[in-house]
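for the writeup, i need someone to sanity check this before i put it in the appendix. the sequnce is what the collaborator sent (i think, or maybe the updated version? ugh). structure was predicted straight from it, no edits. if anything looks off just tell me and ill rerun, i have time this weekend
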Amino acid sequence: MPDLLAVEGTGPLDIVALDDVASTVAFFLRPGGVGWVVLDLVGPEHPSFVDVIRAYRAWLGRLSDSRLPASASR
């Protein structure tokens, strides 16, 4: 991903790791587990799309940060 598509007007994201979802489901499906529960699996942070892409790029060792402006279509 050489350029970052910076879409204006987008809201914060709620990020959930798939491993966390799978572990939580497995925990509550075990024998003798709770029959019904409502959980909020997202964390306390609500990063922007740009922040999420930057974090993934840093994790992958790609630190380029050129941006292409775009508008959010509704």
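The beta strands are 4-8, 67-71. The radius of gyration is 17 Å.
thx in advance!!
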